[in-house]
Amino acid sequence: MGENNTATAKNRSFDAIVIGSGISGGWAAKEFTEKGWKTLVLERGRDVQHLKDYPTTNMMPWEFEHRGQMPLEITEANPIISKCYAFREDAAHFFVKDNEHPYVQSKPFDWIRGYQVGGKSLMWARQTQRWSDFDFEGPARDGFAVDWPIRYKDIAPWYSHVEKFVGISGNKDGLAHLPDGEFLPALELTCVDHYFKEVLQKNYSGRHVIYGRCAHLTKPNPIHQEQGRAQCQNRNLCQRGCPFGGYFSSNASTLPWAAKTGNLTMRPFSVVHSIIYDEQKCIATGVRVVDTNTKEMVEYYAKVIFVNAGAINTNLILLNSTSHRFPNGLGNDSGILGKYVAFHNYRARINAEYEGFMDSTTDGRSPTSAYLPRFRNVEKQETDFLRGYAAGFSSGRYMKRNTDGFGKSLKDQLAKKELTPWFVGSHMMGETIPKESNAVSLHANLKDPWGMPQLDMNVAYDDNDEKMVKDFLDQMTEMYTKAGFKNIKTTDSKAAPGLDIHEMGGVRMGKDPKTSLLNEFNQLHACKNVYVTDGACMTSTSTQNPSLTYMAITARAVDHAVNEAKKGS
Amino acid sequence: MIIHRRSLLKQLLFVSATAAFAPSCLLDKHKTGIPLKHMTVSPEQEAAFASLLATIIPETDTPGAASMHADLFAWKMLDDCSPKSEQDKILKGLNELNLTSQTKFGQFFNRLTEDQRIQIVTDLESNKDKSNSLVAFYRQSKGLALHAYTSSEFYLTKVQVYEQIPGRFHGCVKA
To answer: Do B138 and B56 belong together in one domain?
Structure first.
């Protein structure tokens, strides 16, 4: 406990503490430090420095011991993380192994985690679509969850603010339910993408195929060059960390930017145990940190605390922050902390082939694919389930691999440069309805290696999700059939919640302290100097990939915190 | 066939029993094959496997399975990444392959002439009987040979060139 004496207390005092260095924590760090605030960023994992700590980034496929595949001993010992598509030999070192942070699955939940500086922003899938008022007004219109305390106009300038810095590639498509942003040039759609787009235009109203918006520098601006980032080179090896800084991550962008101000203190190996609440002052005064190397508990102090631990871990910290005033977790007067957890439904997939455009193909690699924005229940309720889904759409041609026979003829076949017909495929990105019964809570007895209670996951699909899976497969099959795609195959993976890696909620925003934890600026209603701006704050899930919204919400909340402090002084 | 196998097994046992007196004997129990973590491979199995993969992907005017050590990669994948059932299938299959070679040509597979090996693999290649364990073993081995070959440095730099840094994407070009 040597670190906790008063002589060092001054060294452990900051203007702001940010818990977590992932995509939203990185933004909090950047915004605070730019505004001159001395900021401590606490990261539970190890340090990962841009470029320096990407050990596999330039490796060739044949240089991997198992050419990418994970050894059976590892997959058998880690059944949860092994389900993640990116847990392969080139990026496995950025993912948390199952036994490194145990939790209880009262209902199956594949919790995919990246504990290191940069968090999951290192390995994310980089798709960045704005929300619209069709999303923010969803709960109020359709009568679920609670009304969002913000609307598109509140967040729009902050979307612009983060997009300019992050670098988002996209087209201005003019769709009301998928607003345009500050875009770098989009890459091209394929011939089949264009064809499918025309088929939908001809046969439906309100069904669009657009180029997916993604956090890639297709044409860097000076602001990106200033970050030391260069143009995306279409390697599509992003999960290893990018030697060009071609995609956005905390490591390549916000954190080094924050460090340059001289106002950033980064403390890796720091598991936040709880937030310290001062019963007299009625504010939070700091945090208790377990140093994962020494297992010592150290306290840090600040006037503002941002909780960006990653949705589920943010719930854990708040639930574990108990005091006389808040016996059930910080800010939890309503008793709903940990409840109304939601996610994205990624279970369904469709694949097919197309025999047109046999004289054409693609060249190089695209970091994203085409995208079908939500078309179900957009303007009004029209199906027997609430909300809707977006879909990816990808197409391309592989090199044909004829493996018949053996010997010289087989080698000759494998050397041929003949292409397969076009493959086409779509995956579902469904909105789920937050429910009180979908909750995470603290287990009564079990602790993790740092003495924190283990989380107990009680999150499941409901009838609405099942109907939506069916509708996705029906509708996509119909659209694929109209397009003349052949060999249509549909699958429902039945994957547990969590594998979408879009877990949200538990600390939702709302207008009424009785039914929500956070106000319109992401402050805890009952403890205003604590802000939550990661996935935990989400009142509903929309269909769009959520990270862009977390970043915008974070920048907006920091602006609010700084303005409040100015008013106070 | 059953009777034939039995007599062959006897023959193998006899060879085994005389191993101590025959320095070049194939079934010397003191010799071990490639050292692996989870599998125990005999020198006969190792030799047969290398020979089978080299028959599937031979040396021509370009490298084949032998010179790129496809068998070592295949053993590694089996040892580290395959369940025990798959490992056993390969080991049993290799014994069966040697038995078949013995039956047909009086020699273990790796000692056959090229023509004899080709004859056996041609039979396996054309056999569509999925319940035949030797055929199933052959399919598995061929899969490993293809994996080793098509993910090798040679294949990805000289045959179907892997471009790590394309620096471009064109959505619709002439095929």
So the answer is: yes
